[in-house]
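Need a sequence for this fold. Nothing fancy.
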């Protein structure tokens, strides 16, 4: 029997050279984050795309406006992200051409991409990315009697969802993709007091867009510092009752004044002293020259 982890590679050997499938990502991007707020949803992403591990393009926009109420961002293969934009634009166009034109709601966009991604995964032709879908609008309802539409639950509200390359749809108040699951998501959960609130039986705190903006900047600064595929040139997009807004790219100030970078068990090192010479280091306030002597081979053999 074929090994599940490698059978796609064996099948790929029998495919013609000119194929449309993404067998492995080539031009990739870093993590994106999302925060659902009381007055809208915020998405943040950097503007860098890498060719393998080479940081080649630094002016790529990874936030895309689908409609006046839907904003998407993705981490992964950039060509597949462009394909996803095309698929959603076709969905919007089809709804506009109906006899009774209907607006695509954010939850509908997530459900649609869930089916698309799952179907393409089954055909061994996945969209190699994880996408965040943010929106503002009324939730989807299967109640055709009209009673649900008359309740407060049917009012317009912020929406934040995620779908990965396997077609798994999720909804939450905060999201981070890729390595951001380990570095950014704990910071976002701490900002909303998720653990304390949920242990007490309550929903996490809901931020406003004004409160979420500096938090998103700090989280993206952390990713730019610790992840090789993230940069400190970012864009932030918001979607609210007023529509979709995407900021111009801006730089985050690098911060390296972390105590752990400048201290060790021997004392403070790597400080900027004008009189410091190459090969020397400061230990407990005293300049200690570093001596590069050849090791004694006889001492090693003894």
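Here you go.
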């Amino acid at each position: 029997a074929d090994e599940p982890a490698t059978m796609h590679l064996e099948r790929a050997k029998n495919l013609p050279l000119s194929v449309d499938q993404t067998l492995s990502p080539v031009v990739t991007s870093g993590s994106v984050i999302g925060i659902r707020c009381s007055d809208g949803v915020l998405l943040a992403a950097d503007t860098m795309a890498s060719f393998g591990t080479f940081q080649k393009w630094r002016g790529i926009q990874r936030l895309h406006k689908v409609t006046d109420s839907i904003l998407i961002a993705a981490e992964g293969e950039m060509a597949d992200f462009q394909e996803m934009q095309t698929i959603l634009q076709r969905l919007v166009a089809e709804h506009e051409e109906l006899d009774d034109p209907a607006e695509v709601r954010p939850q509908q966009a997530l459900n649609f991409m869930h089916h698309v991604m799952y179907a393409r995964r089954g055909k061994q032709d996945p969209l190699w990315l994880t996408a965040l879908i943010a929106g503002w609008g009324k939730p989807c309802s299967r109640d055709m009697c009209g009673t649900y539409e008359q309740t407060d639950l049917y009012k317009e509200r912020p929406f934040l969802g995620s779908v990965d390359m396997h077609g798994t749809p999720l909804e939450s108040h905060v999201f981070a993709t890729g390595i951001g699951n380990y570095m950014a998501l704990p910071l976002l959960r701490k900002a909303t007091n998720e653990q304390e609130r949920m242990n007490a039986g309550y929903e996490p705190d809901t931020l406003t867009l004004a409160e979420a903006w500096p938090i998103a900047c700090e989280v993206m600064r952390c990713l730019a510092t610790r992840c090789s595929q993230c940069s400190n040139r970012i864009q932030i997009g918001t979607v609210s009752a007023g529509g979709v807004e995407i900021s111009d790219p801006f730089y985050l100030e690098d911060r390296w004044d972390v105590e752990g970078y400048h201290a060790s068990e021997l004392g403070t090192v790597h400080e900027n002293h004008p009189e410091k010479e190459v090969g020397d280091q400061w230990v407990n306030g005293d300049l200690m020259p570093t001596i590069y002597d050849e090791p004694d081979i006889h001492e090693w053999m003894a």
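For context: Residues 26 and 52 are 6 Å apart (CA to CA).
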